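Hi Y.,

Following your request, here is the sequence exactly as I used it, all 217 residues.
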Amino acid sequence: MPVKRRRRKKPSTRRARSGAAGGSLRPTLIDAAVTLIARKGPQGFSLREVARRARVSEAAPYWHFADREALLAAVAERGFEEMAKGMMEIWSRETEPEERFRALGIGYVRFALAHPSYLRVMFGSEVPDKAEHPALKAAGERTFTLLIQAIAECQAVGQVRAGDPEAFAVAAWSIVHGLAALLVDGKLKSHATTSAEAERLAHTITDCVMLGLAPRA
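Below is the corresponding structure, written out as tokens. Let me know if you'd prefer a different format.
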């Protein structure tokens, strides 16, 4: 007698969604959150909306994130990772310490303008205590350490005056971040209406930072 072949059942929607919730779901959810932040801001969306945009069940985000803050922390972590990647590219390209330091400042502004959603979460109030999210805290510290190292190298060749490189890094970061935030929030439209004008402002700001850190006569 001929053997009857069993017809293979198609996976159910629930099973298909469970499969999507494997290794690829976490970055997919982060991508969805970044898109929603760009449209509505960090406070303007829910995990339900993230799930809907990622085309998974409403319960799926909770397989990877305890709550909305945990998802935002993951967005911020990715932002710091991308920023660090850009900083390392500058590091390998610029060999002269002062030019490297300037390029890092300009690169910071470029990153902010290219990724405003990341910037708003990286430094916003939605994740009030980074220490509660160890991976995020570590990613943020890595980027800041690169800035401290850049200043220390400028000090080693006499391009920045003697002093605590970490304190100088805080000062430099505060100034450059202030410019980046003002540009991202559209507060400098009368001074920078194009990306080229924004970059010229970034050059001016980094010049001012270097002048303030220069050795005293």
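Residues 1-22 have pLDDT under 50 and may be disordered.

Thanks again,
Q.
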